[in-house]
Amino acid sequence: MGRIADIMNKLPHVKQAALITSDVSRQYLTNFRSSAGVLLITKEKSYLLIDFRYFDKAKQEASEECEVVLLTNTREQLLDLLITHAISTVYLENDKVTLAELARYKDNYAFAQFDTSSFLSDTILDMRIIKSKEELKYIVTAQRIAEKAYQRLLRDIKVGMTEKHVAALLDYYMAEYGSDGVSFDTIAASGINSASPHAVPTDKKLKANEFLTLDFGATFKGYHSDMTRTIAIGGATDEMRTMYSAVYSANLDAIRAVRAGVGGKIPDSVARSTLDAWGYGDYFGHGLGHGVGLEIHEGPTSSRSSTHTLKEGMILTIEPGVYISGKFGVRIEDMVYVTEEGCINLTNTTKSLTVV
Known about the structure:
Helix content is 35%, strand content 21%. The protein is elongated.
């Protein structure tokens, strides 16, 4: 059974439909990537309404589960389809639709009710949280691109370069090796700036005996990768090496705690216990990890407040960090694939402290 059929079967009544307007959900369900379009799913039939920019390509590539329709007038075409299928209730993605869009739907289709409960969004997210073999292949491809770019970057980094220069080079290398785009704004934070988990690259120049934290990812066919490595420029003090060893140990211990059936809180708790033992427990202020797929942050989560139970097929980042304001910070991040026996680390780059 395909993804669209799964949604069709979950619709409670024949007079109900699901309206998919977000780019990510539309790609996931139709296997076609575009920046515009509408997917209408009814119990009887499904339609991908898409404009002339994508129409021919969609006819070739979109899932056979839906009819591809040339979009010329969204209001009139949706109206015709809702009337044709006698739709009385339309489910919307409540985490994607805006108040303005909801008001417009109610004005244009006054005969129908629009359900803004979490039903549709939760249904799609529950499907997306388990990765297919094809999705796993795309994510791994994106990760290999990022790793190749990182290895090349290590040969170029030197004292005097700015953080902006480093980030720009990394982005360029990922593009050169086949990335569709960056997963998020690349982080390159050195010295005192490395103590900020989401630092923005600045004009600060790299100095000897400082950390440089690199958090980055590539994309492939819409799927993201995510990794962080913290390296030392020129050398590392004993204090720097101790902090690095603590984070490295927390990363390894947390990965050992990952397996199907384990609650998302457990790996996070393990990482915190390890950092506590090293004396850095008070300096880890964010959750351990998150899912990665068509979005850079998606389910599951691993944190103190996580409500997820890990299942085979999920992808999770493991990214413990220590950040001491006014000094420096360290983060080490891998992506892992959850299995019944444990997990498979999808990140192939060494985590031993690298000095350039």
